[in-house]
Amino acid sequence: MPQPKVKLVVTGDDFGYCERRNQGIVDCFRAGAISNVSLLVNAVSAKHAAELAKRYHIPIGLHANLSEGLPVSQELKGSTILNKDGFFHGKMGFREVLQSGQLKMSEVEVELRAQVNRFCELVGHMPYHMDGHQHVHVLPEVREVFAQVLSDFGITYTRVPIEPDLKFCTFLPSHLRDFNAQVEKDALESIEVFHRHGIRWPDVYLGLSTMGKNMSLPNLKRALGFALEASLDDAVTSPLILTQSNDAASDSYRPVTAELMVHPGYPSQPHQGGCGEGPDDFSQSADRLHELNTLRDHLVLHYYRQQGIHLCAFKDF
Description:
317 residues, alpha/beta
């Protein structure tokens, strides 16, 4: 077989959110359309997800959650990372409390360690990778704690959500463009922290511009074009393509590595799923089914084969 041009990790996020999302992710994996999953251990169907991962031998990592639902740790009563009802502060609420200077990083660390331990209890091994639900892992201060936890547990890989040419994706609504721009700023500032702790990530990250209704074969081709066009030399020097190879000089050829973040599934039903507060609009959206159907479209899978894009998992690096 010829060497692949790109080793692509297609990660299904939010595994565990509800049984319908779980089944959609599994169907996508079995169709050869995703190659990796990220588990929400505080979600109501996390145990169901872990059992499916074991049954179908799905490579799995941890989707660390500090923003939605109930905590895993039992030591956080009255914690700064929880609201008065005992739930996390929410996607934007967590960022607001962090910015106010009221979050105790010691409590963030307690919860992250509890989630790693819960993952091991559910799955039976350490996460092959660890990222953050709603990109909380690259936020200021949090990233230092996150990196230390990964280092302590020996978890090698994470996600650095900086997508090439995202600022030119004018088809995205303005509120998403603003949020994504802040995510990328936080991610850029995380690079030094992750480097310092010996944490690695793929050369190219994709997924912010291809979520929901924006996922289509033409848009996937556009996004994947950045990985296909990246030579190893470009990957070493470009600030957008974040290679972590230590042995590039000795290897005559190494495929570019990339991660595509996706959120496929059968949409959650009202009052079924979530992380303790019920499912959100994102999980109940028909966009989840649209992603599922697009990812397993035979034209997409044929495009991967035609272009020398080989789907793999973090554990294969």
